Amino acid sequence: MKHPFRKLILALKLALISFLPLLAIDADAQLTARANHDHITVDFFYHGGTVSVSGISDPGTDLVIKVASEDAHQNLRKKGKVGGLLWMTVGELEVENVPNFYEIFSTKKLDDIISRDEMEKHGIGFPALRQHAVLNVATEEEKSKWFDEFVRFKSDSNLYAINSGNITLSEKNGMQNYYILTRWPYQAPPGNYTVTVYAIKEGKVIETATSNVNVEQVGIVKALATMAKSNGALYGILSILAALGAGFGVGLIFRKSEGAH
Q: Can you give the pTM of this predicted structure?
């Protein structure tokens, strides 16, 4: 009788040992992220779209959602007053290690839920971007000034934004559900974008989860973009012909309108 009992105890131990890793995985995998409409196609009639991000997190955690393209090199023209009167181009601004597209969503204001050190560590917020950015300027004062101008330009182009208090939260089955729906700007270029969700407690990031959004040119838009890169001369000729054709068409419309009176 003792022999079968010992076998039963051994089987229970093995089952418990095999089940413990699953418990550990569940404990470390509470945060999830899913981007719906994660494949955006840019065709001839494209004028932006929508992207939603949803998932679950531990109850009571604050969330930050970052949507960003890969870091890249960007060139912009610097504008300034010449002679204290006229605004003119005064040089080129080169910016390294910054994304072309960058948008932040958070359950509350960033300063209220996450420490400055954690923001800098994870690249959350414009001050963190400024710390990582490299600009072709001589002083920190110039860097601060021109980076602020860079952010203003990107914000006006619908490519940079920080939003707080607009993540919808609800509780179900003992977990916290979150959801955002955002307008995807047509100015965002084709490429791969990363959605990163940060779970935050006591000012620190305790978990992260990621998803992806792909923006791809299709049809005639893709063909023209490929032509512009591989055969610039032909693309230029077609652009001139298209402009002439449009001008001729507008001229015909106006002539018909004048004849109708």
A: 0.74
How many CB atoms are closer than 10 A to CB 99? 21
* Helices 232-259 and 219-230, packing angle to 10 deg: 130
Tokens in use for 235? 């693309």
Contacts of 179 (CB under 8 A, 6+ apart): 52, 53, 54, 167, 168
C-alpha 67/C-alpha 74 separation (Å) is 19
Token pair belonging to 228: 């512009």
Which residue is associated with the tokens 């009167």?
Answer: 85
Q: What is the pLDDT of residues 7-53, one digit of tens each?
A: 555 554 444 444 444 333 344 448 999 998 788 888 888 888 899 99
User: Please, what's the largest Cα pairwise distance for the chain?
Assistant: 111
Q: Which residues of 36-62 are buried (b: 16+ CB within 10 A; e: fewer)?
A: eebebebeeeeeebebebbbbbeeebb
**Residue carrying structure tokens 């006006």:** 156
| Residue from 166, 177, 178 nearest 106 by CA | 166
State the alpha helices, DSSP H only, in 29-132. 110-113, 116-122, 126-132
Residue 154 CB coordination number (10 Å): 23
Q: For residue 170, with 0-12 CB atoms within 10 Å meaning exposed, 13-18 middle and 19 or more buried, which class applies?
A: exposed
Dist. CA 18–CA 24, nearest whole Å: 11
> Could you state, in order of their start, the residue ranges of all structural domains in the chain?
31-216
